[in-house]
Design brief:
4-stranded antiparallel beta sheet; single chain; alpha+beta; globular
């Protein structure tokens, strides 16, 4: 994929027990921050709380397009983004970041 093309991305956040509210507060800031910095593509960007129908723990899911192949690298060097990402680490039991490809 060329670096100038949008990069569809799925992120799954698995919070540690008791960390759901703090993690959710950070996730609510994430997409608006990326959008405000011009790092997102033109596609729809959404975040969800994903409840396990079998009474498992909740997770959080984001689906968005990075503007291009360089946007995530730029995000890692941007204080506004790192102010969200760094406090997430201690709240997470697991994190999946997947690049999506249409079938």
């Amino acid at each position: 994929m060329a670096t100038s093309e949008a990069v569809p991305t799925l992120v799954i956040y698995r919070p540690k027990p008791g960390a759901e509210a703090a993690l959710e507060a950070l996730i609510r800031k994430h997409i608006p921050t990326l959008r405000g910095l011009g790092l997102l593509g033109t596609g729809q960007s959404v975040a969800y709380r994903a409840n396990d129908k079998r009474a498992g723990p909740a997770a959080y899911v984001e689906i968005f397009d990075w503007k291009d192949g360089r946007a995530s690298d730029v995000a890692h060097q941007t204080p506004e983004v790192m102010a969200i990402w760094e406090p997430m680490g201690p709240l997470l039991e697991g994190l999946e970041i997947r690049q999506l490809q249409p079938l």
